[in-house]
Amino acid sequence: MNRPTLEDIYQARARIAGTVRRTPLEYSEWLSELARCDVYLKLESQHKTRSFKVRGATNAVAALAPADRARGLVTASAGNHGQAVALAARSVGAKATVFVPGSAPETKKDRIRLLGADLRCVDGTYDDAQDAARGFAEDRGATFVHAFTNPDVVAGQGTVGLEIVEEIPRVREVIVPVGGGGLIAGIGTVMKTIADGDVRVIGVQTDQTSAMYSAFVAGHVVDVAIGPTLADGLAGHVDDVSYQRAQRVTDQMWLVDEAALPEAIRALYRRDGLVVEGAGAVGVAAILEQRLELRGPAVIVISGGNIDGSRLAEILTAE
Q: Is the peptide bond before 105 cis (omega within 30 degrees of 0)?
C-alpha cells in the first residue's frame, strides 16, 4: 500500500522517456473567464493512443521481468488501457490479450486490434470483462496487468503530476477524472509531496459513474450501480487498494450530471479544436456547472480523446 512512492514515479519517468511524449499544458482563456482564475488544460488526449493510460502501461510492461512478458500479457479495459497495453506489448515483442465490455466504443476496439492485441469482447460491464480477463490469465499462466491497482501502472500515471508541477510550481488546484483511481493516486502523490504551496487535488465523476465518490462519502468501498454513461472510461468499480490510495491524496470528490458531458465536449471542440471523450471532459463539465470554486492557477486533466466519430458528430450537431 505504500507504493507508488515519489521515487517510483521518478523511476517511471526515466523508463518511459523517449517512448511516451510530454503532453502540452495549455492556457484556456474561456475557462479562465468562467472560473475567474487562470485555468490550464493538461492534454493527455495528445498521446499516440489518445489517453494518459499509455504512461502507466508502458512503465508496467517495461518493469516486468523478461520471463513475465514471455508468458503473455492480459488485461481488462474500457478501451484506453487496452490500447496502451497493446502498444507496450508490441514494443517489447510480447503477446497481449485484452478483454473489454462489448459496449466499449468501436474506435477503442478497432485500435486495440490494429495494435496487434487479441481482443475479447465480453457481454456485460467492465467488471465482467475484468473477471473474464483474470480467469483467462490464471488458466494460461499469463501476466495480468491491472488497469489501476498495479503500482507500476499508478507510478506511470503519476508522471502527469511531475509535468504539471514543473510548468506551474504554484498550482492551486488539479482537477482529475476518476474511474478506478490510478490517475488521481499518481498525480496526488506528486502534488502532496513536491508541489509548491497549498494545492488541492479534486476528483470528478458523473452521477452514473460514482463508485469512488460513493466510497469517499461512506468512508469505505460500497456497491454502486453504474448507469448508462458517455464517460465509459469511468465506468467500473473500485477496490480497497485503489480507494485507499486515492483517499490519501485527494482533497475533494465531485459529481457532475451526465447531461453536462455533451456540452463540455462541444465547448472543447468549438472553442479549442479539441476532440475529447466523455471521461476526459468531466473536469470541464464541473466548471460549466459551476460546481467548483477555484483560486487558480488550476489545471484540468483532459484524460483522453477516444470517442466514436458518429457519437461526436451527434453531440456537435445537437442544439
A: no
